[in-house]
Write a structure and sequence with these properties.
This protein is of the alpha+beta class. Helix content is 25%, strand content 30%. The chain contains 4 helices and 9 strands. A 7-stranded mixed beta sheet has the order 1-2-3-4-5-7-6, with helices on both faces. The chain has a two-stranded antiparallel ribbon with strand order 8-9. The termini are far apart.
Length: 195
């Protein structure tokens, strides 16, 4: 692979010396996006269009991390975003996480999510949220090991009819206590402090 096409290594390496953790870059979209779509469509229950991927990757490419083998084949990916939530806390959001089935149980997903958390913390996130199927025991365990808390059960949340948990990782003290509301004349606003 030429140095022009080399992906910068963001994190350390896993025990597999051929595995590299890298940040997504839009200049390699033609090569990487089809691999990302294929991996995610195999693992996640939602049928995402190309526009959903581009929505995340064009705006928050710095919050997308991948695990690649020595042949630049995608082994795992996490796709995230970061923005104010209802006028209150700055909320990171883990939209998609997938790892090749043959490589599960090796800590790859944990490493990818940890990299995403660190990147969102560096950008001053107050909290990070996501949804995962109630039946996805491995995913729920992974996020709970990383400190995420179940905050809501979302009945029939996914198109396939499955129920989800909303999980939140509070990064700053008091974030979960912030009240927000929507003022239709002025947009999202934080509630005034109680007297």
């Amino acid at each position: 692979m030429s140095s022009k096409n080399a992906l910068p290594v963001v994190g350390g390496k896993h025990e597999d010396p051929e595995l590299r953790y890298v940040q997504y870059h839009n200049d390699r979209e033609d090569e990487l996006l089809p691999q990302i779509r294929q991996l995610i469509s195999k693992d996640l229950s939602e049928p995402y269009s190309i526009y959903v991927y581009r929505y995340f990757l064009y705006q928050w490419s710095d919050l997308c991390f991948m695990a690649l083998n020595g042949d630049d084949k995608l082994i795992g990916v996490v796709i995230c975003k970061l923005e104010p939530h209802r006028g209150g806390p700055t909320r990171g959001y883990i939209a998609m996480l997938a790892t090749e089935e043959a490589h599960r149980g090796k800590g790859i997903a944990t490493k990818l999510v940890s990299m995403a958390i660190e990147a969102m913390q560096a950008r001053d996130a107050d909290e990070i949220a996501l949804e995962t199927e109630v039946s996805n025991v491995a995913s729920n365990k992974l996020y709970e090991r990383l400190g995420f808390l179940r905050t809501k059960r979302l009945h029939r949340y996914y198109l396939n009819g499955n129920t989800a948990y909303r999980l939140v990782l509070y990064l700053k003290e008091g974030t979960g206590l912030k009240h927000t509301y929507y003022d239709y004349t002025e947009g999202l606003q934080e509630l005034p402090p109680e007297v």
